[in-house]
Specification:
By secondary structure, the protein is α/β, with parallel strands linked by helices. The protein has 2 domains: 133 residues, Rossmann fold (3-Layer(aba) Sandwich); 96 residues, UDP-galactose 4-epimerase, domain 1 (Alpha-Beta Complex). It is built from 12 helices and 9 strands. Strands 3-2-1-4-5-6-8 form a 7-stranded parallel β-sheet, with helices on both faces. The chain has a two-stranded parallel sheet with strand order 7-9. Strand 5, helix 4 and strand 6 form a beta-alpha-beta unit. Helix 1 packs across helix 7, helix 3 runs parallel beside helix 4 and helix 8 crosses helix 12. It is globular and about 55 Å long. 45% of the residues are buried. The model has no long low-confidence stretch (mean pLDDT 97).
Length: 281
């Protein structure tokens, strides 16, 4: 049996590949990537798979029985790209698609949710058996800002007192590998999130504790936070999106307490203390 992994050279994809190699062996895996040369170090077969070149998709899926569709990273293009992949999967005879969606996609106010909801609907209409992994926030989305916070002397955001149930990227990768290497998951929708919920004030306190520096959390209005991000060099659109996601966090969009992720992987998710420690190395 062959398992195809889209986005295999991405940050999540690489972690999934390593997890699957341990469980199933390299010979059963195929990296479906735009540039196979970038997949050379994965230690698995690779083939050209370009969302914007539909002619590569059916050919790339030949012989693939199970497909991990890691959502594309081109916001605004995802529905079209995912539709092409699902159509190609149907033509190629793929028997099961596992898709990485967004936590509480159907009710989330995050701007990211729409394309995930549309993709989930495409899967449901495709006739192909599917499993949906609704991934919560990666803790790295926030710990990546630690160096800047240390430089500025404060951690800034717009999440207010919103509780964030994030988990390390590796935890979500392990969940995908568990699902792809075991039975009983077809038709399921998993709401995946970290065991521990925290506020950005809690995160700032943890940074302060581990560094011995006083790093407060400064909560800013959405537009002001977006301005801070653009001043750091982020494009306007991306800065506004990030600020809006923080506001979504303040409304509970990133909170989930049912511990589905840790139950799936069979151990607690990576604690915030560990993620902060890793970011400080």
């Amino acid at each position: 049996m062959k398992i195809g992994i889209t986005g295999a050279t991405g940050q999540l994809g690489r972690l999934v590949v390593e997890q699957l190699k341990q469980r199933l062996g390299a010979e059963s895996l195929v990296a479906l990537v735009r540039s196979p040369e970038k997949a050379a170090d994965l230690g698995i077969a690779s083939t050209v798979f370009d969302y914007d070149k539909p002619e590569t998709l059916v050919e790339g899926l030949n012989g693939i029985e199970h497909l991990l569709l890691i959502s594309g990273n081109e916001v605004g293009q995802r529905k079209v790209q995912h539709q092409r992949v699902i159509d190609a999967a149907r033509q190629a005879g793929v028997k099961w698609i596992v898709y990485t969606s967004l936590l509480h996609a159907a009710t989330s106010t995050l701007s990211l949710a729409g394309e995930h909801v549309e993709t989930e609907a495409l899967l449901q209409a495709s006739g192909i058996p599917y499993t949906i992994l609704r991934n919560g926030w990666y803790t790295e989305n926030y710990t990546g800002s630690i160096p800047g916070a240390l430089q500025a002397g404060a951690f800034v955001g717009s999440a207010g007192e919103g509780k964030i149930s994030s988990a390390a990227r590796a935890d979500y990768a392990e969940a995908a590998a568990v699902v792809l290497s075991s039975d009983g998951h077809i038709g399921n929708v998993y709401e995946l999130a970290g065991d521990e919920a925290y506020t950005l004030q809690d995160l700032a306190a943890e940074i302060s504790k581990q560094t011995g520096k006083n790093i407060p959390y400064n909560n800013l209005p959405e537009a002001e936070y977006a301005d801070v991000l653009t001043s750091l060099g982020l494009p306007q659109g991306i800065a506004e999106a990030i600020a809006s996601w923080d506001v979504g966090a303040s409304k509970g969009d990133l909170f989930e307490d049912k511990k589905v992720l840790s139950n799936l992987i069979g151990h607690p998710t990576t604690p915030l203390t560990e993620s902060v420690k890793a970011a400080l190395i």
